[in-house]
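Dear all,

This email documents one entry for the complex benchmark we are building for the journal club exercise. For each entry we list the sequence lines for every component of the assembly. Then comes the predicted three-dimensional structure of the complex as a token string, followed by one or two observations. Please use this as the template for your own entries, and keep the labels exactly as they appear.
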Amino acid sequence: MTDLLQLKDKTIVIMGIANERSIGWGVAQSLYKVGAKLVFTYRQERSQKKLLKLLEKNEFEAELVVECDVNNDESISNAFKQIGEKVGTIHGVVHSIAFAHAADLKGDFINTSREGYAFAQDTSAYSLIAVAREAKPYMTEGGSIIGMSYLGAQRVIPEYKVMGIAKSALETTVKYLASDLGPDNIRVNAISAGPIRTLAAKGIPSFNDILNEVKETAPLRRNVTQEDVGDMTLAMMSHLSRGVTGEIIYVDSGYNIMA
Ligand code: 0WD
């Protein structure tokens, strides 16, 4: 199986693990099992401490753990320089990052502030472009880049507001990047995950109602887990998905197909 995947000893950068509930942590577990070499980026010292503890507790040996604030070009550039120097070649990048001001997730959408809109776009969508640009010089053997999206990009999920716009931009960014990087055999896709209770989800009001609706109405009649998303990310990083780029892949128990 591992040979089919062709991920053993491949270097994958995982960005955006806040704690053990993070989707990125589900991804790390899936990739570690098949022998990928993992590099982690964190934004805050607080996340770094949690990440290092998590790695220690699970006896994960990381290739490198490096700071990267995706709101800052210099930080992204420094992070990938450090990664490149350490590992030489990067085979995959998992962008599991999004952020919006809490104020822009409350109240009426029409009151979204100009600054809050720009900040959500910058952190959650533009950052994928900046990350791809800095990773590309080290992706000399081709590879796979994955972003994490949500159904609020395509449909009005009333609680999602400015983040829905950012996810729409992220999904379109995936397509333009796929077109740009395809000739270098770098694939770019997004996974549209169902709702999962994480730190980021805490900012979404009535998240419990969203979880309940999926459980009651999605074809699989259950919510998805970090592991579900982790395993699909593994598939999208692997040789098995070599013909797929520019796609948005739903890992949501089929919820998105329902009227
Ligand atoms: O229901 C959910 N949880 C879903 C999440 C459903 C569908 C999609 N997603 C997406 C999110 O929108 C995001 O893109 O999955 C991705 C990961 O989300 P998560 O696992 O739910 O989020 P969380 O565990 O809170 O981690 C998000 C992390 C931040 O944690 P800290 O504690 O450091 O704020 O995003 C990172 C950060 O690690 N992050 C940043 N990293 C670098 N630079 C930045 C930044 N500027 N902002 C946030």
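Observations: The two ends are 37 Å apart (CA to CA). The chain has eight helices and seven strands.
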